[in-house]
Amino acid sequence: MKKLLLALVLSGVLQACGSQSHPTEQVELNETPEETSSDLHLSLGDRFYTLAFPEGGVKEGKAYKLLFAFHGSGGTEKRMQRMTRFELLSDDYLVIYPKSKEIEWDEGCECNIAHRLGAKDVEFIVQLIDKMHAEYNLLEGENYAVGFSQGGLFSQNMLCKFSEKFQAVASVASPMSDRLSSMCSITDPTSYMLVQGTADRVLPYQGLVHHNFGLISAPKTVELITSQTIPDAIVTESTPSERVTEKLYRSSIDATLLSKLVSINGGGHAWSFEDYSTSNQLLDFFNQSSAYALPEFSALYTVNTKNYHVRSMGKQTDKGDVVILSGANKFFHSDSAWASLVQPLLAEHARVHVIDRLGNAWSSDVEEPSFKQLAEDLPELLSLLGTKEVTFLSFANSNLATLMYLHNPNPDIKVNGVVWADPDILLPHSISQYQSGSVAGLRKYKTEYIEHVRGGNWTEKSRERIAIEREEIVKLIPSNHQEKMDWVYYGQVTEQRLQVENQVTRIKEMMNYHDDLNIAEPLQHNISVPISVIDTDFERLDIETADEENKAGLIKWQQEGTQWSKDIANKTQGKYYQLKNASHQVFFEHPDTVIEAVLELIERSE
């Protein structure tokens, strides 16, 4: 979009604080419509604000973050919205553009008209936070605020007085007032970012000496806040472009706790600059500071107060959706990282969702994670995703969840069929194999193991196993699909495995796996949709290294598994795909077979 420079003569930037003349404020605006039809213009008592929704509207069940954007002195909420347009840049926020009661905000200097007239701006914003969380599905604690010019001073006041309400706060063209700097007391560690032009004449980069309205410098502003939020800060400096210098303060303990000073060399009193998109950069910073730093295409959907992480790719078609469910590998890692290749490939043909069970990736923790829990929540979750027809693709033991779902499905959603890739074999001998060994040991000493893992004792082992898996997968991916592999997403998900609570989930799922098998076993006899099975011979690797005492049992497991898989596919009118000399990571080694199996079921249903 073309950029326009609008010269705004403000009657209150300095005059209201010191009755002195003030320079012209230059604000860079985007040439965009004033508002969209979905915007709501609302009031709270005698106060007014605009509530802006993401461009696609609010999705039922999706959990959002809350963002406040405060206009400058003499400005309006409409002008702030035109300038920033956060709702057009991210689908993750509900954005509030509040209107100050007086010509400016009560910024905490105890020197201006808003303070003298008792505007109670701080109280107004706190009430709005509570109101929004009561009325919308918002993530707890995921509140953000940014202000421009005098609105930036107000955002600092909110940080100093109610840091516990915010995950991150930012200011643009707003070094802190000298008066607020002497009173600021931040109680909860909160991320902070300041964007400031070095040639700003309205609120100068180097601060301002004034008897009533003094300013500390931009660097001192960030240093002051950081001294209270990140006393152990690791400081780095970079120059992303010729005019932009960034000084980053990072916590050595909490990766989401940051402070950042962005200095625009020669920049004036403006929101954005020629080589710096402030709105986009702020959203990136907020995402880094979030407890839910979700990757692209990801969202959280709330079912029974718990949030499920769902990554959705591809366009909706009349063929329905594909839903991928992850299962366990040899290390019992069982999350959406396994879909990092097949999801983008399948998304070329249909809309594809991959769902992380509770306790995995960014999904909420739950006391007793299991496939049973997922199956119980799937009917509502699929409805929230807007699914009308579905083809399931499950890896490894997630076939248990599909069996449970088919037993109690959403009656309004048609199931075209299910593809099982290396599923659990639901015969007595195989079930006993799964329920013995590690699973039995964990169940026997449940409390002891949970305490051990919760103490962080599995983190390094998990890190080592993640490295092993990645090295193996790199070698498995066919050369013609190397470019489609989403290593960024894979890395983001596997990093979540290092969270201690996610490790606790892993062992709890292993413990509850015993019961999931018992629940699913009888359900295999009443399947009403086609089941196609992709069957590898990965068991051969375990057989080769097994001692004589266990080898016979493993051979029987492999042999009966092959026959059972053929029988399931035949009885349900699905297809059987046999892969020789293959690994268990079929999603990476044989993606073409996986896609073929899914598309065959979809096309058959038309």
Tell me what the structure shows.
- It is a single chain.
- This protein is an alpha/beta fold.
- The chain folds into two domains: 3-231 and 264-289, 3-Layer(aba) Sandwich (Rossmann fold); 298-605, Alpha/Beta hydrolase fold, catalytic domain (Rossmann fold), CATH 3.40.50.
- 38% of the residues lie in helices and 22% in strands.
- It contains 22 helices and 20 strands.
- It has a ten-stranded mixed sheet, with helices on both faces. Strands 13-14-16-15-17-18-19-20 form an eight-stranded mixed sheet, sandwiched between helices. A two-stranded antiparallel ribbon has the order 1-2.
- Residues 1-33 have low confidence and may be disordered.
- Keywords: Carbohydrate metabolism, Hydrolase, Polysaccharide degradation, Secreted, Signal, Xylan degradation.
- InterPro entries: AB_hydrolase_fold, FaeB/C/D.
- It is found in: Secreted.
- Its main location: secreted.
- One of its GO terms (molecular function) is feruloyl esterase activity.
- Main beta-sheet strand count, sense and barrel state: 10 strands, mixed
Span between N and C termini?
Answer: 43 Å
Counting DSSP E segments of at least 2 residues, the number of strands comes to 20
Return Rg in Å: 28 Å
Just name the CATH architecture of the largest domain. 3-Layer(aba) Sandwich
Unreliable residue runs: 1-33
Report the β-strand fraction as a percent range: 15-25%
